[in-house]
């Protein structure tokens, strides 16, 4: 069968709008994204003005999932620069996230962290690392089965106010929802709500990383920027608003300390508060290594998803270990956890693992649960 159909072969959907969007996204990515990263930002204006025009709001019931049950998949940090820039040239046979796209696409809803400014302009901020990408990155991720991205991170405004203006323009014309950044704090903290086969899902994104971006480009009442988890009152209020209108609430955070595979007290503290506020799942990235995952009371917590599509090898042990975490949620409760192990290869692409290589990654992940102070919870 053609590659887009193979990508959906194990999907929990039968004939859904999401599958149609995936095929369209691959086609768009293979044509519109074939240029260099200097493609004009105006290209996004050909995309639908509303994310809902490109992303299925309500999928069809499927016989293999009971009513009130959905699956969610989460991956870590991605961007398109240096060795990963060619991944913008997605094809049906080789989408941006490579073979891991099958796992991403199989879930009802999948999300990653897009750790880059979306711009070709602007002056670099006074920091060590700078990442940027053209708007076609969002189409390339959509073509890999990604349904939404977070941009509440420490690289979203690497190219200053001009870069932020371009990013917001891309966000407002994006083919998929972009969370955690906005023209003001109301937009940045606003929960994204989606109905999936009768289950209302809400997602909130924010950054807890104390850095130049969180200090200089934190969204305010009339100020564009990212949603900050350092302002806990605003984040918790956003989660409570989401809980009031949704059955399932996910909080996607940028948090932790680079290279540290055990969560710090600031992570554990905010995870507990978000759980108490009604979060079904709290997941996150930033450390460039995997951290422990499991249950904190009734909430699933993943303290670190690691690198997923990454420009280079981070200078930390096991930084190439990666994977996709998938949750099955029934009637608002996590009933199953699964993890598809991967290793980031020399192209920066996450490659599925099997046998001893897979066991090495999953054993490492399991060993980190102790310092995360999480319980194993239900397994697949």
Automatic annotation (TrEMBL):
Family annotation (InterPro entries): Capsule_synth_CapA (IPR019079), CW_Biosynth-Accessory (IPR052169), Metallo-depent_PP-like (IPR029052)
Signal sequence, renumbered to the chain: 1-34
Sequence ranges assigned to domain Capsule synthesis protein CapA in this UniProt record: 71-312
Key words, A-Z: Signal
Gene3D superfamilies in UniProt: 3.60.21.10
Family label: Belongs to the CapA family.
The protein's name in its UniProt record: Capsular polysaccharide biosynthesis protein
